[in-house]
Specification:
The complex is a heterodimer of chains A (427) and B (348).
Chain A: H1 4-18, E1 27-34, H2 38-54, E2 58-65, H3 70-79, E3 86-90, H4 94-99, E4 123-126, E5 129-133, E6 136-137, E7 140-145, H5 146-151, H6 165-177, E8 185-186, H7 194-208, H8 228-242, E9 263-267, H9 271-278, E10 282-285, E11 296-298, E12 301-305, H10 312-322, H11 325-335, E13 338-339, H12 342-346, H13 358-367, E14 368-370, H14 377-392, H15 397-414
Parallel strand pairs in A: 1-2, 1-3, 8-9, 11-14
Antiparallel strand pairs in A: 3-12, 4-5, 5-12, 6-13, 7-9, 7-10
Helix pairs in contact in A: 2-11, 7-8, 7-14, 14-15
Chain B: H1 5-38, H2 56-62, E1 64-70, E2 72-73, E3 79-80, H3 84-90, E4 98-105, E5 108-114, H4 117-148, H5 155-167, H6 170-180, H7 187-195, H8 209-237, H9 241-249, H10 254-282, H11 286-291, H12 303-313, H13 317-347
Antiparallel strand pairs in B: 1-5, 2-3, 4-5
Helix pairs in contact in B: 1-13, 4-5, 4-8, 4-10, 5-8, 8-10, 10-13, 12-13
Classes of the chains: A alpha/beta (427), B mainly alpha (348).
């Protein structure tokens, strides 16, 4: 026991260094964000720096976590009760986080009017509350070249007058017939990510008149995901591969850039590269109307406040700072993403009326539909991914869709319909 | 002073403790916890309290049943059978069952139903993989070992070259091979087309249910054979030179020397290599996850892949644990049988 005085002093030192430093009286606010592209990351850093400068009593500690493992990290932190105050959440995951009790309503802390200008897809709503808000959104479109369409004499569609299914299928046939491309279309099916498949291809299902789940009460997928419209979608989707209109797996995501395909179905984040390569020849077009109007996916990464946050007021200050028009415009310009508000769009050179990328803003405002707002989203997304991929690979579409419905309905039943559970702890 | 027996025992225990603690902490305890999880409905993200559900996870995983169908008259006047899913989705007793296989006998049909046909298919896929990859990889490794042991010039270089895939990350190797296997741009199709003067029709190796698993087998054997080659090399060098000399004096040909000196001399090494290769084969995950994600149509889904898919990505950790526990029992049985088989052969 002769060492104990040394141990004791070491412990005192440790405790002292762990505690708040007397010089820094600022309240700490921890923040987690998923890793993004370098431009967006830099813009986020500046945003936080500006906030820190404007709030001398607060200090934000931001931590960036790789996107691939972000959901797991957040889930692990949530289970351990160690979520940071402020975190980014992918918008379809918001209901699951609410249901699990991990995030708190923003409209308890911030006046609802603050969100009035934000596009519907920029808000993470659940059970009548706003839980998350995003500065920007993404949009999928058909990318092609003016010269390509001119070669087969195809009409250039507009946001108001998109291609019909007949036009689109006919165009694919004509493009294939030129012999210039082994396959005319890159659908993006190489991506092995359930969330991408839900984001990209369930809007096509919706355009056929089907859906992932009956959105009335979000309690069953029966008759919606396996109904006649969904089966029509499945037959059409499969036909794209059978007819040689699309490859099931492109070797990379440069197909249009390298001229391997005539058209690519992908997101606005590809626009800078393609614009650099094709200049004025690049066309950004709405996806086809497959019978029930054009549909594209809405909802990107959003900011939320955790239930365990000890300084919700300060966190709310940060959220309010994030949705300031100038901050939204700065972020949208830096990241090349669609601003969540009209006012912010007008302050960017790309998305303002007449801007090069205005079409994304218009598409998003006119056709974006959010993914099902239910904690069952992960199950739905996984089931849909398996079914859609199997249909692409030629399984019986009715069987695959029935299996997906059974899986989703079973999960909803297992979880007691995902009714919100009153919880003693947290909040 | 020579240590006493008791002291040596204590010493062995002392030296073994760090490894044992590691094994207990990272293997035994998690496994016991996994067994516990299989009896619950634990999810990864849920506010609901975990409940004990007994053996229902096992029932969901392994449930099998059979139904008999009589043919019915269709709308067009032709006879056929009712769609199996229409029957299972309508009958409460069969709820959750999906068709696994069927056999027709005239106007009746027997349909085998399973609660989780993908698990059963994944199990069969894994066995298929092991059956294909173990002989291929072991014989490839033996051939390489004989080659670099033959005293040819530059064998040190080749030993390194053959071993290099083992050192590479499996993810990197899998990504590269996915490019090689690509239908239109992959080197393999281009080579086959060139070698047959364009007669060869390009194959979508990883996109075709018939070729996807063999493609993974070839890639895995290529990647892994280097390790087994090293073990075989050690075994080869342990065979006394005198035996070869004696065989040569007796007039044995090179093939006879291989058959009657090399192979018997390697029997223990071969047994060891086969066992470790089999165990590794049953853990197939990375290649599938990177190259095919279990597709096309579950043709390459393996048990480990399926366990991760359900347990982690599907957030149903209780069900994922059930898959691994059942799988553990299967593999442990197999390893014991294999060991006993080789032990008996060595004894006889």
């Amino acid at each position: 026991m002769r060492r104990s005085p040394i141990m004791f002093s070491a412990m005192v030192l440790l405790t002292a260094s762990c505690g708040e430093k007397p010089v820094d009286t600022r309240a700490n606010l921890h923040l987690w964000q998923h890793q993004t592209g370098p431009e967006e990351h830099e813009a986020n850093k500046q945003l936080i720096a500006r906030f820190n400068a404007g709030h001398p009593d607060l200090k934000i500690h931001a931590q960036t976590i790789p996107q691939g493992s972000y959901p797991q990290s957040v889930m692990a932190a949530a289970m351990a009760g160690r979520l940071p105050c402020v975190l980014t959440v992918d918008s379809p995951m918001v209901p699951a986080f609410v249901w699990a009790g991990h995030i708190r309503p923003l409209d308890d802390l911030i006046d609802r009017n603050a969100f009035a200008e934000i596009a519907p897809a920029g808000l993470g709503r659940y059970n009548g509350h706003i839980y998350a808000v995003g500065q920007f959104d993404a949009a999928l479109a058909i990318f092609t070249r003016r010269s390509t369409l001119a070669q087969v004499g195809a009409r250039i569609p507009t946001v108001q007058h998109p291609w019909t299914r007949e036009e689109f299928d006919g165009l694919l046939g004509k493009l294939k017939a030129t012999g210039r491309w082994q396959v005319p279309l890159d659908l993006g099916t190489r991506e092995p990510n359930p969330n991408w498949w839900t984001y990209a291809y369930s809007p096509l299902l919706q355009s056929f008149g089907g859906d992932l789940i009956d959105r009335g009460a979000n309690q069953t997928a029966q008759g919606v995901l396996n109904g006649p419209a969904a089966q029509q979608w499945a037959v059409w989707f499969r036909s794209l591969f059978v007819n040689g209109f699309a490859r099931r797996q492109e070797p990379d995501d440069q197909s249009l850039l390298h001229g391997r395909v005539a058209m690519a179905y992908t997101g606005n984040w590809r626009a800078p590269d393609l614009e650099k390569a094709f200049g004025k020849d690049l066309l950004i077009l709405p996806p086809p109307d497959l019978g029930h109007g054009v549909v594209i996916g809405g909802g990107s990464w959003q900011w939320a406040i955790s239930s365990t946050c000890k300084s919700p007021k300060e966190a709310a200050n940060f959220i309010q700072h994030v949705i300031r028009t100038d901050e939204i415009a700065d972020m949208a310009s830096a990241a090349g993403m669609i601003p969540s508000t009209e006012a912010a769009a007008e302050r960017t050179s790309r998305f303002r009326r007449g801007g090069d990328w205005r079409v994304f803003f218009d598409l998003s405002r006119a056709y974006a539909q959010q993914r099902p707002s239910t904690p069952a989203f992960t199950t739905i997304s996984n089931a849909w991914y398996r079914a859609a991929r199997d249909i692409m690979d030629g399984t019986n579409p009715r069987d695959s869709l029935d299996d997906a419905v059974d899986e989703i309905d079973q999960s909803i039943q297992d979880n007691g319909g995902f009714a919100t559970v009153a919880k003693g702890k947290s909040r | 002073m020579r240590p006493q027996w008791a002291n040596r025992g204590a010493l062995a225990f002392l030296f073994g403790t760090p490894a044992m603690l590691g094994l207990i902490g990272f293997l035994v305890v998690p496994f016991l916890m996994a067994i516990g999880l299989t009896l619950t409905n634990q999810k990864l993200l849920s506010p609901q309290d975990t409940r004990i559900v007994g053996l229902s996870n096992y029932e969901r995983l392994l449930g099998l049943t059979m139904i008999r169908q009589d043919s019915v008259l269709g709308v067009n006047g032709d006879t056929g059978f009712e769609r199996v899913r229409d029957v299972t989705r309508r009958t409460p007793r069969l709820h959750g069952y999906k068709p696994l296989g069927q056999a027709e006998f005239g106007s009746t049909r027997l349909v085998l139903l399973a609660r989780d046909p993908i698990f059963i298919q994944s199990l069969l896929n894994t066995i298929l993989f092991a059956v294909m990859v173990v002989p291929l990889q072991c014989s490839l490794a033996l051939a390489l070992a004989l080659l670099v042991n033959a005293g040819l010039p530059g064998q040190r270089l080749f030993r390194t070259v053959y071993f290099s895939p083992v050192v590479m990350s499996m993810v990197v190797v899998a990504v590269i091979w996915a490019f090689l296997f690509n239908r239109d741009l992959g080197l393999i199709n281009q080579f086959l087309s060139w070698a047959t003067f364009g007669k060869f029709q390009p194959v979508d190796w990883l996109g075709n249910p018939a070729t996807a698993m063999p493609a993974i087998v070839i890639m895995s054997a290529w990647q892994g054979a280097g390790l087994q080659m090293l073990i075989f090399l050690a075994g080869l060098q342990a065979i006394p030179k005198e035996l070869y000399d004696a065989a040569r004096i007796d007039g044995a040909t090179a093939f006879q020397r291989f058959l009657h000196v090399t192979l018997p001399g390697l029997s223990r090494t071969i047994a060891f290599v086969i066992i470790i290769t089999t165990i590794a084969a049953f853990g197939l995950f990375t290649q599938v996850d990177v190259m095919t994600q279990g597709g096309p149509a579950n043709a390459t889904s393996t048990v480990m892949f399926y366990a991760i898919e359900r347990g982690v990505r599907g957030q149903d950790i209780a069900y994922g644990s059930t898959i691994t526990v059942v799988y553990f029992v299967l593999i442990a049985t197999l390893a014991l049988l294999q060991q006993r088989f080789f032990a008996r052969r060595a004894g006889s």
